[in-house]
Every structure is written in structure tokens, then in C-alpha cells.
Known about the structure:
Layout: E1 4-6, H1 10-20, H2 26-44, E2 50-57, E3 60-67, E4 71-77, H3 81-90, E5 95-96, E6 99-103, E7 110-115, E8 125-129, E9 132-133, H4 137-148, E10 153-157, E11 160-161, H5 163-172, E12 178-180, E13 182-183, E14 186-187, E15 193-194, H6 200-205
Parallel strand pairs: 1-12, 4-5, 4-6, 4-8, 8-10, 9-11, 10-12, 11-13
Antiparallel strand pairs: 2-3, 6-7, 14-15
Bound molecules: 1-O-pyrophosphono-5-O-phosphono-alpha-D-ribofuranose (PRP).
The site of 1-O-pyrophosphono-5-O-phosphono-alpha-D-ribofuranose has 24 residues, from β4, β6, β9, α4 and α6.
Amino acid sequence: MTKLHVSNHPLVRHKLTLLRDKNTDHRSFRELMRELALLLCYEATQDLQLSPKVVETPMGSANGFKAEESIGVVPVLRAGLGMLEGVMQLLPNVQVWHIGLYRDEETLRPVQYYNRLPEKTSVQICLILDPMLATGGSAAATVDLLKNVGVERIKYIGLIAAPEGVERLSKAHPDVPIYLASLDERLNDVGFIVPGLGDAGDRQFGT
Ligand code: PRP
């Protein structure tokens, strides 16, 4: 069964409110996306596996840990790009696999226009980055692509979602946990999340 994690961290709530505000300019929007992605990535990586590691401090030996798992990060273009930098600040050694999808405005179905996935996976876990989980079509298609190259552990990190999107992704891929800053009310009749934040791609890139 899918695990849905909606952050209740005060900084996430504060920053998401600023992100939603229609008066937030592009520059601040990008900065907030970066910060929110970092905070949600911190929450989504709580179960990463560690191995023991001893280090020498100036005062002697200390028993510590080393994060062991190899990670792939999958930003879904365009909007997911704004989450990449924050995630890479926490996880500087990840592989980045770009996927380009846009949603057809009439059918609301995802259309793929770019794919830089390897033919076979060499990572143990993949983190999908996309701020908006609306109908869930793009997220489910991205998970399909990752499973096709052999990725076994996948997590979805978004910012906001409609219940319809969560339901679709969870039904299609119950093994993929979903990390969000907010679960919003609904989709409107043109497939936008309400109250949402508008179009995350347009607001980042000024289009
Ligand atoms: C948005 C968003 C998701 C998708 C979500 O992308 O970033 O990828 O829509 O919708 P869904 O859950 O109904 O599939 P968009 O098509 O606006 O492209 P963009 O990121 O290039 O602006």
C-alpha cells in the first residue's frame, strides 16, 4: 500500500505559503522551490541505509556512519528542474536522469519529449522530482519508465497534489511512497490543482 507523507514541518508550511502567493516573483519562486525540495528530500531520505565508519577526530576515534546506497534523481522537465538544486545540495553524488514530459492541454495525458535514463539501472533507489501531482498521469508514466530500466525502489517527491493524482499514482504503483508539502482540495475542470500555485513551470521560468 502506498505511503503518503505530507510534511507538517513549520518551515515547509511557511515556505509553501509564500510559493503559492500570486505576488511572489520568479526569482523568489525558484529560491523557495529549491528550499522546499531540500526540506522534503531530508524527510524522504530518513530510511537510507548506512554502514559503520570510523573516523579520526582531533581527539581520537569516533564511530560514525556512511550513507551507502547509490541514488538516482529524476527531475521531470520542466517544473521538476527547480527542485534539483536543493536535492543536490543534500545529495551531491547522485546520478541525474532527466525526463521531459508535458501534459497535453486537451487530453491531459503526458507526452514524452526527452529521456536520459540509462538502458539499465546502476542505482539502488530513485527519487522522482516534480512539484505538481495533478491527474497523476505524468508521475505514473515516470515510474513506468524507471521500472522498465530495472529500478526497484522509487520515491516520489512533489510539492502539492490533488487527491485524484495521489489516488492514480497509488493505484498504479502502490510500492512508491509519495512525499508532499501539501495535499490540496481538488482538480478544477481544466486539470489544475486548487488552490494550488498556478503553473509551476511558468512561474519559475517566466513564460
Ligand atoms: C506539470 C507538472 C507535472 C504535470 C502534472 O507539467 O510539472 O509534470 O503537469 O500533471 P499530471 O499529474 O496531470 O500529469 P506541465 O505539463 O505543466 O509541463 P512543464 O513542467 O513543462 O510546465
